[in-house]
Amino acid sequence: MQLPDEAISYDYRNLLAPAIEDWTPAAEMHQQHFLSPGKLRDLTQRVLQVRSQVATERELRQVPLEMQPLDSGFIDLPQNLLDQSRKSPDASTLGQVMRIAQRMRESVDRFVILGIGGSYMGTRALFDALRSTYHNELPAKDRSGTPRIYFEGNNADSDSLHELFEMLSITCVDPDKRDERWGVTVISKSGGTLETAVAYRAIRREMAEYYGLHSPMTKKLIAPITGATGKLRNLCKADGFAEEDVLTIPDDVGGRFSIFTPVGLLPAAVMGLDVRALLLGAAAMTKRFLEERFETNPVLQYATVNYLMNTQYQKPIRVMSIWSKKLEALGLWYDQLLAESLGKQGQGPTPITAVQTRDLHSRGQQHQEGARDKVINNLVVKAVSQPPIMVGMADRNEDDLNQYNRKGLPDVMQAALQGTSKAYADVSRPTADIVMPTISEHTMGQLMQMLMLATVVEGRLMGVNPYGQPGVEMYKKNMQALLKTSAAQ
Ligand code: PA5
Predict the structure, then answer these.
(1) Integer Cα distance of 477 and 377 in angstroms
(2) Phi, psi (5° rounding) for residue 183?
(3) Looking only at Cα atoms, what is the longest distance across the chain?
(4) Minimum-distance ligand 1 atom for the alpha carbon of 226
(5) Ligand 1 atom nearest residue 187's Cα
(6) Residue 451 neighbours by CB distance under 10 Å
């Protein structure tokens, strides 16, 4: 159940152009760069129609050719998974995910996640947001029985994978001890992505060497996640995996929309995250999207405001300015979601993730005085999760900080946010705020579902199919062709 004080909101008041009383150069700048409430009102009707269209699309049994691909399964998936698990806990997808996750947690102290793009970035976002930054350095007892987590198979970088193997061979010597065992999940919807497939082949070699060529242990320590058909599925069959040990990514959910399929849920459960709270948050956001009026609907507001800033105010650069270090990977996940979904037919905003206050010291100058091609969405977390670090009093005050002795880092962050927003507003640079009450499974579920839904709505407003990524296939084809030619030489 969603607690009302945990709901995410979108506050775009700072971005609206004020009514002009007297003409001044500043008022003129505001009209040019801030959103006219009239324009927003004019579009509202159309946005509501787009919502109906998105709602109807998801019920289509037969998808006409011109609408393909239509990967709208992600919209109802969180609620469907919760319902299914309530009705038949053991036979449900969630039951299957939990069983495999528990087996992994009990069996290994290190867990490698192989996957790229949509099969990796959301999981990374969850790990960084919801686990300690120093998770892997903590002793086992302080990780509440969850393994250390590593990400690979997201690149063709040989040195990086080599360093993983090196670390595993130094730290894991006796496969009979849980603390020296490692396991892996290999995630690929198509089952044919080269980076992940090569990493998996190399990992299987390492496993055979460490656990023994035909050891039954290896199958127990591998959790494949893939589509219903494809090369990875075939490999699992050939390897003799039991059907219930291979998790399936539904056909109607695209890679970058797959965080609430086993792609994100299995690793989340292995990390010890509250998977149900994640799904509840996502399901609550779907419900709000479908049922709430524009004035309280963060999905519709975010999609509309950002669509208008891009198409009518010449602001093609969309900065997600994140006021929490722990959400940087979430920003990168959104970069991928937006770029792959909307970067089509010569259109689409360019996403940029900035992490504050760090990037005030790198990008801040450009945001304040550079080209006026940006809209900034602050991602603001209202309450920190841990006791705040205070400035405090010190005997030596050469740093002049005693004056702030009762202030803490959250106060510094808040002052920086307000100071920055004011500095931008003063020179007519528009900002809006996505407000997250705190970082939890429930709010992460809401946020990710909100951004996925908003991306679909924005795509429909633009007249672009947000699903599919035909452009990415080109490099894959070329890469495979080049490899084939050189392999034949
Ligand atoms: O959003 C997408 O579909 C892509 O980013 C894919 O997730 C990425 O290319 C990886 O594909 P696969 O899961 O098939 O290995």
Answers:
(1) 36
(2) -130, 175
(3) 81
(4) 13
(5) 13
(6) 22
Residues with a catalytic annotation lie at 340, 361, 476
Write the CA distances from 239 to 37, 196, 243, 247, 415, integer angstroms. 60, 17, 11, 15, 57
pLDDT tens digits, residue range 412-431? 999 999 999 999 999 999 99
Query: pTM, whole model, 2 decimals?
Result: 0.97
d(CA 117, CA 348): 19
pLDDT score recorded for residue 1: 47
Q: What is the DSSP letter of 90?
A: T
**What mean pLDDT, rounded, does the chain reach?**
96
Is residue 349 within 8 Å of 318, Cβ to Cβ?
yes
Using CB distances shorter than 6 Å, the residues near ligand 1 are 116-119, 188-190, 193, 196, 254-256, 340, 469, 472
The domains of the chain, with CATH numbers, are 4-69+293-466 (3.40.50.10490), 77-273 (3.40.50.10490)
Q: What angle do CA 133, 137, 140 make, to 5 degrees?
A: 110
> What's the chain's Rg over C-alpha atoms?
24
Name the pLDDT band for 5 (thresholds 50, 70, 90): low
- The closest residue, in CA terms, to atom 7 on ligand 1 is 118
Nearest CA to ligand 1 atom 9: 117
pLDDT at residue 23 in the model: 86
Q: For the segment 303-346, what is each residue's pLDDT rounded down to a tens digit? A: 999 999 999 999 999 999 999 999 999 999 999 999 999 999 99
Q: Which two tokens stand for residue 309?
A: 């800033």
Ligand 1 center to 61 CA (angstroms): 24
Distance CA 316, CA 348 (A): 7
Contact 125, 202 (CB under 8 A): no
